Amino acid sequence: MSDFTIIDLTPENISEYGVCGYKDVNRHIGLRKKIDWFNEYYPKGLRIKAVISEKGGYQGMLEYIPGEYAHRPVDAHGYMFMHYIIAGFKKEFKGKGYASSLIDECVRDAKNEGMNGVAVVTRKGSFMAKKDIFIKKGFLQVDKAKPDFELLVMKFNEDAPGPKFKNMEQQLEKYKKDLYVIRSAQCPYTEKNVNAIITSAREEFGLYAKLTDFDDFNAVQDSPCAFGTFCIVYDGEIISHHPISNTRFINIMNKKMK
Fold first, then answer.
1. Taking the domain 168-256, which CATH number applies?
2. Does the N terminus or the C terminus of the chain have fewer Cβ atoms within 10 A?
3. What's the pTM?
4. Where along the chain do its domains lie?
C-alpha cells in the first residue's frame, strides 16, 4: 500500500495547495498570475496533479495540457504535453516513485482522451526535468533545440506525425537589437527578479529593457527559446533560457559588455 495519494488541483482548491513551492497568494504575485492562468486554461484541458505524502504533505506535481495549447514553441497537436514535473520538494522524499506515478497519470489521461501520445521538453539543469525518467518510461527523443533542449515523445499511434520544435531561429530575428525580457504567467517564477533586472540594465549598463508578456499559447509557441515562458535576449542572442537572479544577470552582462 502506497504512502501517498495523487489529487487533482482545480480552480476551487489550487489556492489552498499552491504550485511550485509557492503557497501564499498574498505574498507571491507570480502565484496569483499563475492561478489566473490556470483558471483560463483549465476548461481547455489543463491539468495539475499533486502528490500528497502521508508524512511529508505536498511533495510533487505534474502539469500537462493538450498539445495545441502547449506553452512551449512546439507543434504537438494530437498529443498531451507535459509542461513540468517536480517530485520531492524535500530531499528525504525524492526517489519515492512520485514522478513515475505522476507520469502514469498523464499517460492514462492521454489514452482515455484518444490522443496520439504524450510529449515533453527536457533539459539538464534548472527549471526543467532531465530526460532520464522519461527514457525509462519508454519515451524517445524526436527533436532537439539549442543549446541542449530535447523533445521526447511516447507514441500510442505509431502512424501519427510526431511532435516537433517550431522555428525558433526565425522568431529570434524579431529581437536582433536591444535587450528583451520575455515571460509568460505559465511559470510562476517569471515574476521574480524581473524588476531588479530591468533596473540593473538601466543603471549598470544604460540599457532600457523591453518587457514582453506573452499573453496566450500562440505567443508562447512563437518564442525564440525552447523554454518558451521565459528568456532574456540581448542583441539577437539569448543570454538566459530560464528565470535568473539579478546577480546572475549582472554577471552575464559584465562579460557581454567587455
1. 3.40.30.10
2. N
3. 0.94
4. 4-165, 168-256
